Amino acid sequence: MLFMPLNILLIWCFGLLSVAILGGGIYIVYEWYEGELVGTSYLVGGLMMILWSFGGRFISLALLRRRGADEPKAHRTGQVQRIARPDGSTVQVEFYGPEDGQPIILSHGWGPNSTVWYYAKRQLSDRFRVIVWDLPGLGKSSKPKNKDYSAEKYARDLEAVVAIAGEKPVILLGHSLGGMLTLTFCRLFPEHLGRRVAGLILVDTTYTNPVKTSILSGLLRALQKPLLQPILYLTILLSPIVWLMTWLSYLNGSLYISVEVSGFTGKETRGQLDFAAFISALGSPGVLARGTLAMFKFKEEGTLSEINIPALVVVGASDIATVPAASIRMETELPQAELVTLKPGGHMGLMERNQQFAEAVRAFSQRIIA
Prior knowledge:
Blueprint: H1 8-34, H2 40-64, E1 79-84, E2 90-96, E3 103-107, H3 118-124, E4 129-133, H4 151-163, E5 170-175, H5 177-188, E6 197-203, H6 217-237, H7 239-252, H8 255-263, H9 270-281, H10 285-295, E7 311-316, H11 324-333, E8 337-342, H12 349-352, H13 354-369
Parallel strand pairs: 3-4, 3-5, 5-6, 6-7, 7-8
Antiparallel strand pairs: 1-2, 2-4
Helix pairs in contact: 1-2, 1-7, 2-7, 3-13, 4-5, 6-10, 8-9
GO molecular function: hydrolase activity
Keywords: Hydrolase, Membrane, Transmembrane, Transmembrane helix
Protein name: Hydrolase, alpha/beta fold family
């Protein structure tokens, strides 16, 4: 699950459906026990609904997807450093690869945490100094006390990560919200471009309110104020309940539908689909809702033309969360940009097409080094 505007309605729909299946199963079994429903079929049906609520994912995965040779895991090793921030949050930063390698800082999207970079860490850390961090409120980074989840807040956190990355100029790689906060970083800290920052890699991201660059953008823009924003505020208010609904959706397998629709193209493996759903379900719905509300104010169109350093724009050909047209515009307006399209690839092409993605990052980074 990627907590983007496109997913808000799906999250609630599948969550409520999951509660209804579990509640319905319990009710049927209870009524059978009380003698109100007569017949073994009611007992079997009720028990099946309860069992599906807690184990349906195993059947769904076995039927829908093949097993891969290298399935992702929530892998955390290497050197760890924690940075205390003025807003009360603490940022966890992890380092992989040779200390003298070209540093690449990876900023993940909204919903997962830094373990989403499983493949990138394995495929790039042989030569590069791969640095990943958890956005505060997700993973092992604590929440900001002032409840600020704006791109500006995360851009300032990114500057703190850049400060501990070593002496070499870094390459900033951002996926989805990670790319958005990278653009904000360029606006807030232009003095770092060409000095502390050698290049950018913007992956399946956008330059504006993601509602405007999503599939069905016209409909979503019309629904933003009357429907999407109230649902997000309700999510904040009922965060523990929504979290329970999300985990029920994960256990019964219905969350896979949301993850599949928003992130993949059907070419992902069983483990990739399950891992993407699992790490997304870990995030607090209240935190994710606040961050999504902040995205509605995101606007960096004017920043693109001011970024005069090499940039690589990567997009999945079938991305519906941030459609390829957004990446094409960024490639056009960035002064030194090139575009790579992952085919087939969705919003989670960094996982589904991980080898092609790593090759594109490696080739661009080696040109930066040269």
